[in-house]
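testing teh design pipeline on a random one, pls ignore if ur not involved
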């Protein structure tokens, strides 16, 4: 059983930055694609960014140029650096690997 634990969410003003972290309980980060998703109130969960085992990354159009996904294979960690945050980025952010999901971390962008 794989456990994914997100952290790093919080309240930030528009234009600010946050770095989300996802800790995996076993060594899946280096072997499988990992992703970050988000779900805003009343909306469906959407893909934010992915990173393959080879290090290739993809991003939703809405976050391109502002968010960066990365990983640390030795530490079984996946990160999401979020810059120039906007109110529409407000959501619960989830880490995903294989069929496993974390519990989510709340990101609120508000002045």
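output:
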């Amino acid at each position: 059983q794989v456990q994914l634990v997100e952290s790093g969410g919080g309240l930030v003003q528009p234009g600010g930055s946050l770095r989300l972290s996802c800790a995996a309980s076993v060594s899946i980060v280096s072997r499988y694609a990992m992703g970050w998703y988000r779900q805003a109130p009343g909306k469906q969960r959407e893909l934010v960014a992915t990173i393959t085992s080879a290090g290739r990354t993809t991003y939703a159009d809405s976050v391109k140029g502002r968010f960066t996904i990365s990983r640390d294979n030795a530490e079984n960690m996946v990160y999401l650096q979020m810059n120039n945050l906007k109110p529409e980025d407000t959501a619960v952010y989830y880490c995903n690997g294989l069929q496993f999901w974390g519990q989510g971390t709340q990101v609120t962008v508000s002045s």
